[in-house]
Design brief:
The chain has 21 helices and 25 strands. By secondary structure, the protein is of the alpha/beta class. It folds into three domains: about 130 residues, Roll (Urease, subunit C, domain 1); about 300 residues, TIM Barrel, CATH 3.20.20; about 120 residues, Diaminopimelate Epimerase, Chain A, domain 1 (Roll), CATH 3.10.310. An eight-stranded parallel beta sheet has the order 8-15-16-18-19-20-21-22. It has a six-stranded mixed beta sheet with strand order 3-2-7-23-24-25, covered by helices on one side. Helix 4 packs across helix 5. The chain is globular and about 80 Å long.
Length: about 575
């Protein structure tokens, strides 16, 4: 692993790693009787851990931990349960997860008729003129697998404006009432980085891709501050219930930063959050001017990264490809950021020690990202940077030209990847790309062997955001059993699956490394933060289907039990 943050920025993280020996040996918390995978090569397996304050004080055997138990020590008998370092999701849209929990959730819509039935029911209950806003539909499993159209929405909601966002967030379907409010007609040009889909007569058919969505979104009434707070609190509750100890939140505004600070100050959030703001733009400029905030609120909140979006999604054909889509040769997708506006921000980020992470799905977008990162690195050599190793990230790394795969390790770019995308996309990726381009698709093992750091995430709420689904996807590289019928694994490159050891590292020490945190978390090591995820089964040994049946029993953050499943209670 590479070095921790330089002293100028990292004092609150790195200086906190101090020996615990100077403190009393009686522990505040002891976990014993467990099957503990430490992700620490010096002591890879243990039965027990002891915690003093928010730090790990001891890792070892049940016998040796006994002397650290005092009258005030909370002791949890794990009864053979499996403990791993507190799991981290390296790509998790925090407020989006909260929004899904509280709003019109269209996940699981089995068909177009099912979707329309839900919208019609919503419209009948809505006030006249009120917006109907939903998210989560995906046409992949429908027959036929076609996008909805405005005319279909008009049948069930002729008067209330409707916008229904596809699961990936890069496409939305709207009805005629919404198009009218936005002033979109056959003469409206496509905005840069977006597309107004049209029928054979040139009329807008209701599908809006990427930046074209903003033409309608700007007419939706703004949420209240209280609404957004409720989303954050709902996301926190769901995240810790699933076993996440940290989530890395890519993109958003400076208002998100202010919201998180407020909620942490009021002790309303338990999860650790590593935050990026969107750029180029005003939020990125505010971070560049203010500088990184690292390890605030007792190491619960860090903001030190800028998120760029360079293209759309594969499912909505917005991902930027080097050649046309196999199932629609009229398009190769599109880039959503202009190099001229991006380059000054990249240079400023390097000069000020700010990390950059870029959404890149198509092979053209990934090459664009690698080229622009390399250009910035050459413009600001390591000797001129406050952080010689900036650990810039590529978010998704889904479709990469095989010629570009070695560049990740060479440039030191972290591949922040979401295993569940592969097992969902396998139902349509071969149609979108053709077999040849699958050679560089979701290439986890190739990137790993090249020396690149692969960090694991889920991209929730695009995906479910569940740790066991991600772990299963990483090691099985097969569809979920409930969706396996009719799935073809032809050309799906089973050799790109991760080993279980790699998958565990992707969601622990590698995710910590991607956030400059590997000195304080990511493994169960004395002196590190006492973050643990306690699981009902040994995910390193059970069969692949049994991984999906594994439950989270305890989420422990900084030595505090923030979630305890009913099944774990005496």
């Amino acid at each position: 692993m590479r070095k921790c943050l330089p002293v100028a920025i990292a004092v609150s993280w790195c200086a906190a790693v101090v020996p615990v020996a100077a403190r009393a040996q009686t522990a505040d918390l002891v976990l014993r009787g467990g099957n503990i995978y430490t992700v620490d090569e010096h002591v890879p397996h243990a039965q027990a851990v002891a915690v003093i304050g928010d730090r790990i004080a001891f890792v070892g055997s049940d016998k040796d931990v006994a002397g650290r138990i005092g009258t005030q020590t909370r002791v949890i008998d794990l009864k053979g349960a499996t403990v791993v370092p507190g799991l981290t999701d390296a790509h998790y849209h925090f407020l989006g997860v909260g929004d899904r929990e509280l709003s019109f959730n269209l996940e699981g819509s089995k068909s177009l008729d099912d979707l329309l039935s839900k919208v019609g029911e919503r419209a009948r209950a809505a006030k006249p003129g009120a917006w109907i806003v939903g998210r989560g539909w995906i046409e992949t499993f429908w027959t036929p697998p076609a996008f909805p159209k405005r005319s279909e929405l008009d049948r069930v909601s002729p008067d209330n404006p409707v916008i229904l966002v596809r699961a990936d967030g890069h496409g939305a379907v709207v009805n005629s009432a919404a198009l009218k409010l936005a002033g979109i007609d056959r003469n409206t040009p496509n905005p840069f980085g977006g597309e107004i889909s049209r029928d054979k007569d040139g009329e807008a058919n209701g599908m809006l891709l990427d930046h074209a969505q903003t033409l309608v979104r700007s007419h939706i009434p703004h949420e209240t501050a209280e609404d957004i707070e409720r989303k954050a609190i709902a996301a926190d509750k769901r995240s810790i219930m699933l076993g996440w100890c940290e989530v890395q939140d890519p993109g958003g505004s400076w208002d998100d930063v202010l919201l998180y600070r407020k909620l942490y100050g009021e002790h309303k959030l338990s999860i650790r959050l590593y935050k990026a703001v969107s750029g180029p733009g005003p939020s990125a400029r505010m971070l560049l001017d203010a500088g990184a905030q690292v390890g605030a609120y007792e190491n619960h909140f860090t903001v030190r990264s800028i998120k760029v979006v360079s293209d759309g999604a594969l499912g909505s054909r917005g991902a930027a490809l080097l050649a046309p889509y196999s199932d629609d040769p009229s398009t190769s997708g599109f880039l959503t950021v202009e190099a001229d506006s991006l380059r000054p921000m990249l240079v400023s980020a390097l000069e000020r020690g700010i990390q950059v992470e870029t959404h890149a799905i198509g092979d053209r977008a990934n090459r664009f990202m690698l080229d622009e990162y390399q250009r910035a690195f050459e413009a600001v050599p390591a000797a001129r940077r406050p952080i010689a190793d900036p650990r810039w990230r590529d978010e998704h790394t889904q479709i990469v030209s095989p010629a570009d795969l070695p560049r990740f390790a060479k440039l030191g770019i972290i591949a922040s990847m979401q295993p569940s995308h592969a097992i969902g996309d396998l139902f349509f990726a071969s149609r979108r790309l053709g077999m040849e381009r699958l050679n560089g698709a979701y290439a986890w093992e190739t990137l790993w062997k090249s020396g690149a750091v692969v960090a694991g995430g889920s991209d929730a709420p695009v995906e479910r955001g569940e740790p066991m689904i991600e772990f299963y996807a990483a090691v099985a590289r097969k569809p979920l059993p409930s969706r396996a019928a009719g799935a073809s694994l032809e050309g799906w490159h089973a050799e790109e699956a991760m080993t279980r050891e790699q998958a565990l590292k992707a969601f622990t020490i590698n995710a910590a490394f991607a956030a400059f945190e590997e000195k304080v978390k990511g493994s169960i090591t004395p002196g590190k933060l006492a973050d643990f995820t306690v699981l009902s089964a040994d995910i390193m040994k059970v069969s692949e289907p049994e991984i999906l049946e594994t439950k989270n029993l305890y989420t422990i953050i900084g030595g505090k039990v923030v979630y305890e499943a009913a099944a774990a209670r005496p």
